[in-house]
Structure formats: C-alpha cells, structure tokens
Specification:
Layout: E1 7-13, E2 19-25, H1 32-38, H2 44-65, H3 75-86, E3 90-99, E4 102-110, H4 112-116, H5 118-125, H6 131-134, H7 136-140, E5 145-146, H8 148-151, H9 157-169, E6 174-180, E7 186-192, H10 203-240, E8 246-251, E9 256-259, H11 261-269, E10 273-275, E11 281-283, H12 286-301, E12 310-314, E13 322-328, E14 345-351, H13 361-368, H14 372-382, H15 387-394, H16 398-411, H17 417-425, H18 428-431
C-alpha cells in the first residue's frame, strides 16, 4: 500500500531541456492525521472518497500556506486548518533562539482563536514568564518532537507553574515539532489540546506535524525574502524622493509608470508638461509632444541600451525651458526569464530650471570651515550675485564683503572667484538632496 503524505514539489530538467515536476512523498505510516482533513473511512468506496477529500484539503492548506508571504493575515487561516486537522485548541508557529541562556521568540503567528486571546496568552506565556522558555535544557535536548515530559522532570517546580498557567490560559496537552534553522534558531509548531481533552498526540499526528515543517519553513523564508525586497524598495524610494532631479519611468506610449516625488510635484504644477486624459505625457506644444513621445518610444524599445540618450528642451526656449533626458532601461540585465519581463520602459530625468539648490551654512562650515557670514556670501556668489549686489542686500560695506571673500578663498584653497564657484558647485553640499 502506498504511503500517503504531503507532496513536496521539486523542479528538475530532463535531457531534452523540458521542465518536469518530481514529487517526493514525505513518509507517513498511516493517514490518521490526514483523515481529520478528509473524514473517516467506512468502506472501499468511502476510503477513496475520503482520500480524494483529504488531498483536496491538503492542497487547499498548501495553497493558503504559500499565499502567506504576500499577506500576513493569511496565517490565521492556515493555522485554523491545523487546529481542525489536529483537533487542538491552539496552533502557533514561532521562531525561537537562545539569548543569554534563555529562549526568546523572534517571530510568531497564531490561529484566530489564539490571536483573539492574545492578551491572555501573553500574560501567562510571554518569553519572560513561560517556563518552557526558562529551561536551559529545553533547547539543547529538544528532539524533533517534544512534550512537556521531555522538557521537565516530574517533580520540577517549573512544571507545576506551567500546568497552572496552561489552566489559566485555557490550554491543554502540548506537542511541539521543531526543526533547526540558521544561527542556532529553531522553527517550532506549537500545538495545545483543549483543556478537557486528555488524549495524547499520536505517532501519526507527530508525523503530520513533521511533514508540515518544511512547508512552514519555506513559506517563512519566502516571506522574509519578499519583506527584504519591499524594505529595499522602500529605502530606494525614500532616497530618490529626496533628489532635486525629477525621475520617471514611462511605457512606450509615454504613460508614466512610476515617478519620484519631485517629478510628481512638477507634473501637478507645471504649465509645460502634464498628463492628458489618457495619462500620456503632453506639452503645451504639439511639435514638442510628438518629439517627446517619439523619444520615449525609441528608448523603451531599446532593451539593450545601445542607443544614445536623448535630451530635449520643452516650453519656451531660454532659461525657463524644462530640460528632459530620455534614456533606455536595460531590461536584458534583469535576472529573470523573458516571459516575466513586463512592458518595456524608458527613464526620464527632469530638471526644473527654477529650482534653486540650497547651500546650508552648517554644512559649508563642516566641509570648508566657513563662518555663517562667509557661507552666505559663498552661496550668493555661487548663484550669480556680484559683490556689490550682495553687499547691498546684506547691508554691509563692500570692503567687508571683499575681506570675507579673501577669507573664503584661503579656506577653500582657490585663487580665483570662478574656481570658488566651481568648487562649490561640484561639492557634496551642492549635490545634497533637498
């Protein structure tokens, strides 16, 4: 008779490079644990029906489990199914790790009943008061499957304390399934019977718990990978939102897909560039709109990035014209198959000519040792002010301004005013985010 278990899928490649799926069936001596997912057996026909129902529910359980990485709220759904499968009051998955001689929970999810009773459970079983977390040998001597009798001696006062806490929290017999993971941590499935249920956990239930552990571990690893990617994306967005440059990605039809906050602000208040009713970039000139959209289309279709970037000036020619650089994004460098590549996109870099950088005096002091008065003068010169204009604006004598300029040039080690401006404009302070 074939053993029934939870199939763990693996993808292998055959000699003719076709992808095939190989399923390894994890051992389970008899399907009692799985029967609880599908119902009891009474005849040959009912056995087949029950097995079909069991496998359907197992598949549903795994589908729900592997949806957890994209939504933490799915975990209670999965753990509620485990409560049904094991006929338990509580099912909790946690990662624990020894810290200074005591076990600590690093991560935890609970079934819906346990989540609703979180305050009660935390009162009696937080890391600091949980007797199981306070026994040093509970971690070092744990097998894959543990009961409280494996952790505590019969006359251990901690066992008496534990039983009192279990009764107060409305929990009964305990079974823990454990598998080691990185950095001395362990992934554990913690099950508690109902208080009035004195049945011990069977060998078949132990096997079912052990079969679930690799799937739980994989789901948690996927969740961690996704979280890391989301966090890095968040930090990247935070960084580009501080840039004075407007950054935008567009599809080939000139529809913005993403933009940083500078570009968003510019589109909202600009009379030069905006989105029309079809969300396409549009300018106040039909000729410039055609040129911009053609440049975006060429760059978006240039997946190898072989063409040179294009620079356009939008609006009226002159100092107030919007400067736009359009360039390809090299999608061929992305570590994924072509079938997963989305619409081709182009990168737009926007420079608002009316955006004036700020040179904070405290940063100029840190970088060049300038005083507040010297910092204000250096900043004014950087933006085109003359000595006489600055003296009038600041209400000081021109001779005072000339002396300050001499001090600035000495501290910045330059001999010409043009070199001073160049050094300021190429400094980290000038390029600092707004």
């Amino acid at each position: 008779m074939h053993q029934v278990g939870i199939p763990a899928p693996h993808v292998t490649c055959t000699s003719d490079s076709r992808l095939t799926e190989r399923r390894e069936v994890l051992p389970l001596s008899a399907p009692t644990g799985l029967e609880r997912l599908g119902g009891a057996r009474s005849s040959a026909t009912s056995r087949l029906v029950c097995r079909a129902v069991r496998m359907f529910r197992i598949n549903q359980l795994l589908l729900d489990l592997y949806s957890c990485p994209t939504g933490r709220g799915r975990w209670p759904v999965v753990l509620d199914q485990l409560c049904t499968a094991f006929q338990v009051e509580s099912a909790v998955v946690q990662i624990i790790q020894p810290v200074k001689g005591q076990l600590r929970s690093r991560w935890m999810v609970r079934d819906s009943r346990s989540e609703a009773a979180r305050a009660v459970h935390d009162t009696y079983f937080s890391d600091d008061v949980n007797p199981r977390m306070r026994v040093r040998r509970a971690y070092s001597a744990w097998q894959s499957i543990t009961r409280d009798s494996d952790i505590f001696d019969p006359d251990d006062p901690l066992l008496t304390d534990l039983n009192t806490r279990l009764a107060a929290a409305g929990l009964g017999r305990y079974l823990g399934a454990r598998t080691p993971i990185a950095n001395d941590a362990a992934l554990t499935l913690v099950l508690h019977r109902r208080p009035n249920d004195q049945r011990d956990f069977s060998k078949r239930e132990e096997n079912l718990a052990l079969e679930l552990l690799p799937h739980l571990q994989q789901a948690i690893q996927l969740a961690g990978t996704l979280f890391d990617a989301q966090r890095e994306t968040h930090y990247l967005h935070e960084t580009v939102d501080h840039l004075r440059l407007g950054l935008m990605t567009c599809t080939a039809d000139a529809s913005p897909h993403w933009s940083n906050s500078t570009a968003q602000r510019f589109l909202k208040r600009s009379e030069i560039l905006w989105q029309n009713a079809d969300r396409q970039l549009t300018t106040n000139s039909a000729r410039q709109t055609i040129a911009l959209r053609a440049a975006i289309a060429r760059a978006a279709e240039d997946r190898n990035g072989v063409r040179d970037s294009q620079v356009l000036m939008l609006g009226n020619a002159g100092a107030n014209a919007l400067q736009v650089r359009v360039q390809a994004l090299e999608s061929t460098a992305m570590p994924m198959s072509v079938s997963f590549q989305g619409e081709p996109r182009a990168l737009l870099v926007l420079i608002d000519p009316n955006s004036r950088p700020h040179l904070p005096a405290d940063l100029l002091k840190q970088l060049f040792g300038l005083s507040p008065a010297e910092s204000r003068l250096a900043s004014a010169l950087c933006f085109g002010s003359t000595l006489n204009e600055y003296a009038t604006h600041a209400g000081v004598a021109v001779s005072t301004v000339r002396y300050q300029l001499k001090q600035i040039m000495a501290k910045m080690e330059v001999s010409k005013q043009s070199q001073l401006v160049q050094r300021l404009c190429t400094s980290i302070v000038f390029r600092m985010p707004a």
